[in-house]
Amino acid sequence: MKLSARERILLTAHDLFYRDGIRATGIDKVIAESGVTKVTFYRHFPSKNALILAFLDYRHERWMTWFTEALARNGAKPGGGLIPIVPALAEWFNNPIYRGCAFINSVAEFGGTFPEVLAISAQHKRDMIAVVADLIPESERKAELANAVAIAIDGAIVRAQFETEPDQVLTSLEIIMHALN
Fold it and tell me: What predicted TM-score, i.e. pTM, was given to this entire model?
């Protein structure tokens, strides 16, 4: 299947931004690696900021789909508990191209200088929390617990970025999930 120019640009930007960082990746590199002209690039994305926002939207959809499917592959069921989170994240952490959370990384790169990045990242985290909340049995503290789990997940994601082997991170996360389950 032949991809459209827009899709090639977006997929190329996705891979480069995730691998090398957004600020470190210039538009000329995206253009060269996607095989489009500057005119074609700017027809689809009038600025690098527009491409960054499209990248984050794309990454959100892609990651959320993967996360829900990975949880299901590992036995997750509504109200069934938090344990499937650990093997799901193990799939991601053990991927050779793992570079952490694109949203955490983007917020770290831009801070408050690009408010739209903060907004998209916050929405991504809210959507992740909603998926996590679905795993938790009904209780008065379900929302608080889902937020606590999300913080543990984010901590594990960051820690897995600089550990040579994610096993210790996953073991620690498993202890947390059992304690909160």
Answer: 0.93
Residues 6+ apart with CB under 8 A from 32: none
Tell me which residues of the chain have a pLDDT lower than 70. none
Task: Tell me the Cα Rg of the chain.
Answer: 18
Task: Give the relative orientation of helices 48-73 and 27-34 as an angle to the nearest 10 degrees.
Answer: 60
pLDDT in tens, 72-118: 999 999 999 999 999 999 999 999 999 999 999 999 999 889 999 99
Residue 166: name the closest of 151, 176, 153, 156 by CA: 156
**Cβ 101 vs Cβ 121: under 8 Å:** no
d(CA 160, CA 94): 9
Residue with tokens 């489009």: 36
Residue 40 tokens read as 């074609």
Q: What is the rounded CA–CA span in Å between residue 68 and residue 132?
A: 9
